[in-house]
Fold these 4 entries.
Entry 1:
Amino acid sequence: MAILQRSLIVVTGLCVFGLIHAAAPNMFTPAYTSLFDNQRQYPSSAESESSIKNEVKTQFSLLTKTGTVNEINVQETNIFYTDPLANLSSSGLFIRAVDEQGKPAFKNSSELSTEVDINVTGMIARTRVSQTFKNNSDTWQDGVYAFPLPENAAVDHLLLKVGNRIIEGQIKQKQEAKKIFEKAKQEGKKASLVVQHRPNIFTNEVANIGPGEEIEVSIEYQQTLRFADGEYSLRYPLDIKERYQPQSSNEDSVEKSNFRRKALTLRVNLASGTHLNNITSENHPIVTHSSANQIGSGASQYEISLADEYVLQKDFVLRWQPELGSQPQTSHFSQWVNGEEYGLVMIYPPLPDENLDQDREITFILDTSGSMAGDAIKQAKQALAFAVDDLAASDKFNIIQFNSHAEQLWRTAKFADSTNKADAFDFIASLTANGGTEMHSALSVAFDSADKAKAENEDDRFFKQILFITDGSVSNEHSLMQLISTRLGSQRLFTIGIGAAPNTYFMTEAAKMGKGSFTFIADTSQVNEKMQTLLEKIKAPALTNIQFNLKALGPNESIEMYPDTIGDLYHEEPMVLSYKKNASATASNQHAHENTDDFADINAPLLVGRYNNNPWQFSLTQELSGKSIKQYQQNKPDNSALNSETTLGTIATRAQGINVLWAREKIAQLSRDKRKLEVQPVESKEQIDSLVTEITQTALAHHIVSQYTSLVAVDTEQTAPEKNIQNQQSQEAMLAEAELKRAQLAIAQAHGLSQQGLLPQTATRAQLNMLIALLLLTMAVLMLWRRKHDEI
Amino acid sequence: MKSKTEVAVNSNDSKRRNNKVFTIMHHTISVETIFIYAIFVFALVLLGDSFYIKTKAQYAQYLIGNSWQYYANTGEIQKPWPWADTFPIAELSIQDTSHFILSGASGRNLAFGPAHLANTASLGSEGNAAIAGHRDTHFEQLKTSKLGDLIYLTSRQEDKLVKQVFRVSDIKIVDEKNIDVLQETSTSTLTLITCYPFDSIDPNPSQRYIVKAELI
């Protein structure tokens, strides 16, 4: 026994030595010293297990305390970046000031009037806001105009009037914008680069506002409305509940803010392209006028305005419901900009119908590579089990798991009856994550078995879907994309992203190529909800094999359409296609579909597809029967030559922003193309450069902010007193430079480059383990020592 | 507080209870001894585990370093070990310490070394490229990073090695949900991410320490 005890002491010694050795590089930093110091307090005070537990608690709190102390130090050194406009919920002009502690703060300036014009075309909403403010103080002031933007919106037009100065925003190439800004600064003029600090707040510096001077700000932004639960909703921010109030300012302005009213003129021109069931406003009474100038068209256009001049300061929310029928409904809009025709086609799904449920054959592919280890594989298995459980008995399914090689559950797909499901659950439970990511072989296996089934002439009443669960960490993206594009056939590929930082680029692209969709699951709690939504959606595609009919084009016409791959129409969301009609045969690029047929058939359908196993088509001539409306923008002089075409009986409206939508989609596609080139092992600099040029040109032509273009606003006059200028100039220059550095691009955000989920987990359990181990060792030694003491 | 006599009585009680013995291969072992040894073994396992985590993080860098040298010289991907699911794509040098950056910031990769987040811009190209690392192994040194520090990044661009210099422009602490820090930028930016606070023993903290560096 004594020998055993001695050897134990030796082992303990070794352990401590090992521990110190392991931590050696960090041994002498203050953090570790304090950690060890604290631990040394244990043996003296620990008498029983419970008291040790208490000690553990105190230890934890001690550690949290040191954590807090560090945080305070960090704050003192100004590392924390806090945005005073973070909680902004309504627009305003904020005057720069300094609070009691000498830190920068903002004061509200008084608002005189606000005019809002919203133009809705299908699912595009273009908003023009004009606001007037006044500098009520008797000194020169600097301010910031801030506007909380709705999701997926970007400001593309800006006009400022300060006294008799006019400042207009122009879209310039980024370097050029910076040059203009620098030059204006040197000349003592005011200039500002408009950048979006945060994706959802637009800010613009307004310098040198004279005493008593009025400031008029006009901005224009475009957003894509979301269709959810059968309705559209449009929101204009008016809420002031959470408005930022500097601590130093007088408190009385905050009180009763809910009951305050303000003068507001707000008009909505609503052209949805379909019959509408209902138009409602959530917080404000409205007056709705239906436009009368329709020629037998059932699709209506509405003018909506506020019933009161003074409105409650709550967000203006307008909802409308397109009337859906038993057939897919299509609406078409077009707009002429600079002599070119831009079009927007929207296809609404029919009302859900049980009879449309198709029998499906689903192949699940599960990534069990090493990168999935930990929480990711747990989530993936949970998602897979959920999906298998959800299958109807008339559906067929099979599971493929892959790491360094791919493995199938069965040779061919089996019906989803309870026995087969039970087998599948056993299979899923047995999976662990390890090894490489041979995604290519897994996809090949899936495509092979589909080809084999086709060759053996099995009945093809099954709609084939592939559900691919992975974190997308692959090095051969390019060859995978090629594999999908060449071998997809009639199948549909849905990607499901798992884990903290999955490769969203790849999975979004793969799903697009596979005519499916990408679903992202950030953590375990979301699995059921997200899978439920996806499975419900893919149960019954309403409209499949949708294609643009090239015969509908005139001679020498070509169509450049985005998205360039048309997927299927599902019950959850309408399909949106935007195109540009190129009149000359020379205009073509990789995304253009050239019309090779010289004789265009005017009656040929624009779109063809399959609905409920029958052919489906949509042609522009249907407009006369009221299925859709064709719209021309007449309020621009350059369109006058083209009005002869409106003899078809189309309705003249103010269709806006179709070209902007098209350009945004094009830029998003070009950015993805660029990214695809960048991840290839051999980069081709020339191709990337030409894509950058194309993105820049598209952005300049359509006046939008992009990765390579900025909105720059230069003040043409200089009116501030001399001494004021230098001060403000340096301050503004600093601010603008800081902003330039922080330039964050809402456009990139809006088009799938946005991030979701959490930042990766970057701590190990090593420290915690060490601490517990030390505690236990101490406890064991104590117990041994006590026993020895008792024996004596 | 118990008096001395009570303690004595208690210990006698426990002694009586401890007379329950097991006989294994002619040795008699009391329950208490088994208990003590069990604690010992458990403690050793825990120690071994934490030792393993640290060693793995240290040693894997040598293998990854070899793999990186090969990739840097030839442009061909060589996995650091045959069953690896990742490969090094760049070398990051902070305060004279080199790290080899793995592709894809999955939990497993992070145990071997700092890793590049696949959904951010690629390293060495324009945009915001994010690298995550463990606060208690590789990225512990971020604690001593200051504004203005230089960070060197070596990556392969079009058949040649490119070394870029970045200057630390911003240091902040954010919540793990604050993915704003990954947002695309028009300039070349490095975003280094590690867990915060540094000295905490909580293996799943909710805060992240962010070091941003701009290309100069």
Entry 2:
Amino acid sequence: MRTRRPRGRLLAAAAALALLMTGCSDGPARDDGTIRLRFQSLAWQQESVDANKELVEEWNAAHPDVQVEYVQGSWDSVHDQLLTSFEGGEAPDIIHDASDDLADFAYGGCLADLTELLPERLRADIPRQSWETTTFGDGVYGVPFLQEPRVLIANTEILETSGVRLPTAERPWSWEEFRQVTKDLTKTMGKGKYAVAWPLKEPVSVTLNLGLSAGGRLFHRGQDGKVTIDFRDGDGVVPGTIHDQVNVDRSASRSTLGMGGSDTLPGFFGGKYAMVPLGFSYRQQIAQQAPEGFRWTVLPAPAGPDGPAQGVSPQTLSVAQDSAHKKEAAQFIDFMLRPQNMVRLAKGDWMLPTGTQALGDPALHTEKDGWATGADLARHLRSAPAQAVRGYPEWKDKVATPAYQEFYSGAIDEKELKERLVKDGNLVLARYQR
Amino acid sequence: MISATATARSGRKAARSTGGTVDHGAWFLVLPALIPILVLSVGPLLYGISLAFTDAQAGRTEPTEWVGTLNFQDLLHDTLFWESFRIGLLWAVGVTVPQFLLALGLALLLDQRLRLRWLARALAIVPWAMPEVVVGIMWRLVYNPDAGILNETLRDLGLGSGQDWLTGLATALPAVIVVGIWAGMPQTTVALLAGLQNTPHELHEAAALDGAGAWRRFRTVTWPAIRPVALAVTALNFIWNFNAFALVYVLTSGGPGGRTRLPMLFAYEQAFRYGQFGYAAAMGCVMVALISVMLAFYLVGRLKGGEDA
Amino acid sequence: MTALRTGRAGRAGQYAALLGYLVLLAFPFLWLISTAFKPPRELGSLHPTWIPVNPTLANFRQAFDEQPLLQAAGNSLIAALAAALIAVVIATPMAYTMARRRGRLTTAATGWVVVSQAFPFVLVIIPLFLVLKNLQLINTLSGLIMVYVVWSLPFALWMLVGYVRAVPGELEEAAAVDGASRLRTLVSVTAPLLAPGIVATALFAFITAWNEFFFALVLLKTPEKQTLPVVLTHFLGAEGVADLGPLAAAAFLATIPSLVIFAIIQKRITGGMLAGAVKS
């Protein structure tokens, strides 16, 4: 009982003050004729964050009347965050995302149709198959600007001593050859070591994107425009190969199935795995973290009868439908994606630009760090099959992710995988297509 | 049941201490709290229930319409939701029961005159005071397959090379349950300890003089005394655990492959990731209804048992 | 706390059990602290040690560089402070009424206190989100504070009713007999006796709000508005790429305020929480 004086009034006053303060700070910025735009970037690797921030600063210096504020977003929560932001009317003006995340926002009327807003230069610079990734219905709802093929990052030492044929972008391994190579390679490596480590914490996009090379599609649009899921022979090739590597040949590590890409790197550096299939941009982490003297190389992913085709979901820049200054926002996007700027962004993220001019930049064709191999693959990249489908994100998270994970770990067979992907999947899709 | 007795008690006192003149004053005192409660708690709850009968979705292209019980019919066929519900029950029981037993043990120890008791009391509040997010982060560090202390300890003890606890299909749920137990133990301990300290000493001593062993003393003296508290605490814990969110969100986000996707996480994703507000509201309704029914059975059963004893 | 006869073996068993509990309770937290002070090389090591070989503060620096921790802490502070103060200010009169009077309103309020514990948040958050959206309060601390106030009311009422009952009604009656007005009685007799309980309740509400995650996650959209727990999850990063050192450092810092406050009010909270349950 040390406190003697009643404090009610003081508390009330303080509380009111606090509310008032927060209330004020929530208000719109002062009105001096300057247009203020918010640009939410998802860049997370330091070089890439720096590149984005520099570009924003250059824009701001050149355009005193249109000031852009850099807002940091994060990939792992972007969908939830954008959805609630759109609902709450708090969405940033310029939105960085990936094309496979846009369908629900585009169909939901949250994103601006850019068809009329973008200059001809940009439209012509980016190839048609890239624009397809952001076209929903009749509108274009984002500018695809960076993309990455899946590649095999390999321990040069182990591959050279084994004497296997090294694949090139012109002559990649076929899926059967890949399976045979990993089988042979594992035998030469010794106990507890594996030819390949599949990091499959997020198995769906890897499976679908690589599956395209073997003719996998999974999603089929019917006469009535409604999308349904069907599992055909081509859809089984890539999953089957991975499954057999893990469960039959034991040429792929079981323990990496639940890991994200970065988690496999210590084992890769330690010589536990000869190859890790990763996104092209992981080279940055490898270049930074590899121990002294560690030699690594970039190989193209295996190909099917259709060549090394791969699905990609490029990173995109979009404009919010609610933005009061769509024209200026589109101009900012145009500025960000000028060829030389696109190169800077690409280098910052260790990815490939979609723009034809930017892709021609010699800096992206060096042998060092495997840039050349990736750049050669660029023209084989096409729109991932599922991404224009409404309800795909839910299907991916709830149905496909567990189904593939259990299939890869050997818990279920192909029949059950098929049944779950198709039956449960169509129930989900139906809810979105009433 | 606790509040009922409490109300009755205060009622008696009120009848003595005040006349009938302050009725308006009472409203004046109550309104500041009542209005926010009505506007931001009761109102939204009713609104939420009504949403369950609509096709409310994120996005602005289509107006919301009444769809009757369509959401509930969908839900009936949604095997994933029922799987999630099953996981939720497994989690809630798996956390509540061991939590109660461990907390009871700790409370009994703390009720003894032991050295280091102060330290245990101080430490016992740590999990309680921590933000749930931090608890989640902390255990992620413990469970980390390479840099974590758990696998390192197992390796030191020669118990194999360890596990990917949070990403393994078989280990994820048990691993998360352990964290749930750890995080909720202090509240339970404190509640039980207070109950214990209310046990009349004389009874203990009398029982001891009678030569009753520890177990018998516990059965005949301690347990009856803390029974009401224990009942209330387990019931509340069960509900809280069933509604848990932050811990699992941080630890696994429902992975691997949905093995730890608790119903709350499921409904959250349905609403705020996929924008299916109406469907998510229907899930909320079903969850409340089922849990209430279960709890009612539990409490009625327990209370009856108490009368028989 | 009786000194009952317990065999020597029994005592030893008790100490062993207590030791077990101590280890169980302490080790994750110690590991967090240890991780927070480890340099990257040790974090990447396949044989981690309990005590950092080369302790470093770099993780803390990096944590502040990577995420707006100070701003987030400021947001958390404003939200928790405002929520706690408002909750206590509006809950105290109601708790007083509930404790001293009987009536349908009191019964209903008590019922609500109990029932509200059983709501799944999700059933409340969806409509709340839509309501706050119409009020333009999404992504504002004001909106979050309103939610926190209502959300902490049940517990605040619960505790305060207990504290009010602990103040004997006879004291108030005596003052009334002495001719003091009702208001005077409240201010000069009841309030001072109630003050410590009110402070404890406010502090408890503060910690609850400081630690809260779910509502903040849903309602706050831009990094400069987000509270500490939400910002902490940003360290987890994409595809589970967690930078363990800064993550641990930031998590450790975020815990300190809660721990300090909790240490101060621990006794009162346990008393208040159980006042209703045990004393009746």
Entry 3:
Amino acid sequence: MSRETLFNAALLLGLIAVPAWAVMTDEPFTITLATRAVILALAAAGLNIALGIGGLVSLGHAVFFGIGGYAMGILAHHAQSYTPLMEWPFLIEGTKFMPLIWLLAIVVSALVALVIGILSLRTTGAYFIMITLAFGQMFYYFAISWSTYGGEDGMSIYVRNDFPGLNTLAPIQFYGLCLAILVVVLVFSARLRRSPFGLALNAARQVPARVEAVGMDPMRLKLVAFVISGVITGLAGALFADLNRFVSPTMFSWQFSGEIMILVILGGVGRLFGPVAGAVTFVALEHFLGGITEFWHIFLGLILLAVVLFARGGITGLVAGKEATHD
Amino acid sequence: MSTILIIEQVLNGLQSGVMLFLMAAGLTLIFGVMGLINLAHGSLYMVGAFAAAAVAGVTGSFVLALIAALAAAALAGAVIEVAVIRRLYDSDHLDQVLATFALILIFSEGTRWVFGSFPLFLDIPDALSGPVTLPGGIQYPLYRLALIGVGLLVAFGLWLLIERTRIGIQIRAGENDREMIAALGVDISKLYTLVFALGAALAGLAGALVGAIQSVQVGMGEPVLILAFVVIVIGGIGSIKGAFIGALLVGLTDTLVGIFLPEVLKLFMDAAPATSAGSSIASMSIYILMSLVLIWRPSGLFGARA
């Protein structure tokens, strides 16, 4: 077993052991922190597919996170106020049923990722970064001016949504649900990397011309990766909104896009468990440094600078040594 | 809808466009010469505004405040160039984005630490306060008119600097081939520091000038930064001319669509939904403009590299 596999196993074990310990010692806040870390890891795992395998530096992934959040917010808002979402041409009611909320989050994220992807992938490099950033901002301002759903103030949901067979109000059960989704997505990512599609995508990142020469369209590969990536981040957004029972335009903010990217880099770009390591570290830093000083972002900035300048492989790189899949 | 209102709004659009140009010019210059994406450019804008507000608070002089803004932003720019940015020229864009994002975190929280979370205020100097009557009997704030003038003057000065001076030749040569001009005996790292400090000073100037009509607060730079990105994507990255035209386009679109779209929609629908739909679309208008330009020309209006 390689050191990276051991490290990943230790991480996963920690994600099971720490909340289990928190249940026994009755510390619900620790479970909330862990849930936050798992959901952020999910959002970053989404970006890791576009960024780590496809090399697409998207600074607008908060768009999908926000769409997931608003999918939950809008459906639950209509369900709790007993007003239909739409009466014409056919009746659509709100719902508190999580799988349906996720379905909406996934479908809308996929469509938006497709449109943003088609427009942004016409360009590369610096243009791509700035354009994804600008699209993120477009959604942010749209959410602010969308007064039907709270505008700048966002929306609160009174009770967490339902999942069949679970009591989602119990923190540990909701945590288990989120962790299960994260594991499914990680297994999916691991298989994706080894699939013909993942290998072709990896090649399209490194030498697009050769991929084209063997008869594949690098742009199409990247577009599919961008859509998959957006869908996963969108799902994370729906869960995040459910965790806080609150959605607001800040879920669309470009600072959040930057944060998702920090999670990926902190953990190690392109590593399977990089997003998990990054998210756990981020939440721990936020909790402990944030407890010491309200200016903890200065230290986050310094740590990030140090990682970028001196530790390119992130935490996974430090612990497990080289073997980076991203060059 | 009167002609006076239209002219006023066009002037407002020009004013915001010209200030946007000060930001975009620095960004595009830094990208063109050094190939660096600088997210921290908005922080330099904020540094300029805070320096101006602090100096104006102590001395009461607007001129001294502007000098302080230029100096503080140029100094901050030179310091981060030497300490951090210099190591990023050969890195990929991802590293540049992250490192400059880290700089934003440090600058924003550092400023909050020093000045607190409450906004500061910078007053318009007495000589430039109050309205002025334009031909046609239009009342317009003199200060905003002065901003348009300063912006155009800076744009002209920048053109002179780049097209007509020795430094300008070196900058243009640096855009094309950095090894070659280093081989010709130009101290390339000094030139880079200079270009970065120049871009920073322009951002600081914009921050101080706009700070007098808006409040000076932490985070004020980022919305402007993103608008400036839209500007240089539209104009073509690396092109100062593109930045100028893009800035005016964005400034005018942003201002005019926000005012007139709801009015136009009212011709077709009820007043309340027209206002809300109009303001929603208006907030997205410049991004729609950007998408249209990109569909037409993926590397911007005047972009050389795609």
Entry 4:
Amino acid sequence: MKARNKRLLLVGGGVALLVAAVALVLSAFQQNLVFFHTPSEVVAGKAPVGRTFRIGGMVEAGSIKREADGLTVNFAITDTAKVIPVSYRGTLPDLFQEGKGAVVQGTLGPDGRFVASEVLAKHDENYMPVEAQYALDQAHEAARTVQQ
Amino acid sequence: MTISTTTPGRAAVRPPQGWLRFAAPQQFYPLAGQLAPWFAALAALLAAAGLYIGFFVAPTDFQQGEVYRVIFIHVPAAWMSMFIYLIMAFWSAVGLVMNTRLSFIVSQALAPTGAMFCFVALWTGALWGKPTWGAYWVWDARLTSQLLLLFLYFGFIALTRAIEDPRRADRAGAVLALVGAVNVPIIYFSVQWWNTLHQGASVSIAKAPSMATIMLVGMLLMALAAWMYSIAVALWRVRALILERERHTEWVGAVLEAEAKAAGGVR
């Protein structure tokens, strides 16, 4: 075997071993690498109890209610299967809207209400002009009218 | 100038023919010097077109408003930072296997540009994250693995500069580049493998882009500009590294003398 082929085998083998090791480590840490839990996981009791964690999902349509003090906001976060009620006191990011993604960080109270200390808006990967969204809304509206 | 192709006593080793002869630093030095300005000019043209489309032609986004325009810088920079690392790892592997000096030089010439793009991606991402997410930084898998990439670049640069003997420095750097390359697919697929705050890919080979065409055109022009810029800068850096390493050889002496004469003639 030529020295060059030996080195190729050595480098290739080394990289392959490394990839296998990293794959094993990553699959072992799968749980810790998750940035947020889904409402279904929280209901199923898979979320950490008694310490801070994050829930990610959609802000349920029609669920945002501001309290009289003007700072506290109540809303519900859902993955369309399960719904978790959330309370938050503070300023919300601009993109925080009903029907859009959000990630809330805080603790789950004994009454099943999640008390958030931080709210982040989760943005999706769609980019389009304002006019295109307007046209889409019009189309949805037309489809609904036809059905009725 | 004529280059003798046969050396007494080493008649068995044939000098490489065709484009492989550019693997010799002495041959690559003038080639790099000829190519670099063309790539730089292309980079300037593409960047001008891309920035014009990005900031004057592309429409406002329906959700994010004007802040989305960061993608014309952020996405090409992030792509480039990952791609340059893979290229560095490739040339490192070639260098380790084939024992070619130029391969190591190329991977070391690419490192500062990769680190720069990596920093730009993190920085513009933070500026975008504050108004969009509500936070400059979160420790999600995408952001954390990209930060790790920046540290890998710094580590590579520091390691190759810290070792005096260039042959040992080349080898140590190459091993680090190969080991670190494992991080690149992790960065890319992190948004698919785990729940992350960072959104998924808008543009990928697997599916149609979820983006208006004119926005996409602007972004791709900027990505091409980043490629051309990286090639141009790397070629110039390769030339500097070749001169530094071969400074004791006759041909570098001749090149420097000729350049000094040309500069004197201009004055």
